Amino acid sequence: MANKLQIVQFDVEENYHTVVDLILFMMGIDIVERASSINSAKKVFEKIEAGKIKPNVAIVSAFLQKDHKDGEQVAKKLRELIPDIKIIAYTVLDDVEWGDYLAIKTTQDQEKGLIKILEEISGKEYRFDNSK
To answer: Could you tell me the pTM of the whole model?
Structure first.
């Protein structure tokens, strides 16, 4: 993966935006854009199409507004716009197949958690103290 990650997040729940922000902060990584609805997702797509952002990683919830198929539709559109984007399906469902990675929101199994996947993609280590 490139040295500089450009991450976008699609999730209807603000608390999961906060969780991702905290994890990425501790890893020294920033979110470049986020969406919390279908309408805001369309605005992110417009920025990608205009060349204002070129994310290489997307963290996508299965549910964004209508039903659990929203994430699959977002992933499909992202792949049309950026074929080599890495998509992390970030969901409570354990049977989604539209992401390159599956991070379970409610898991205690660290191998299936978001931190482990972000460490793998970024090559950076999650630390509780990011001051070093």
So the answer is: 0.90
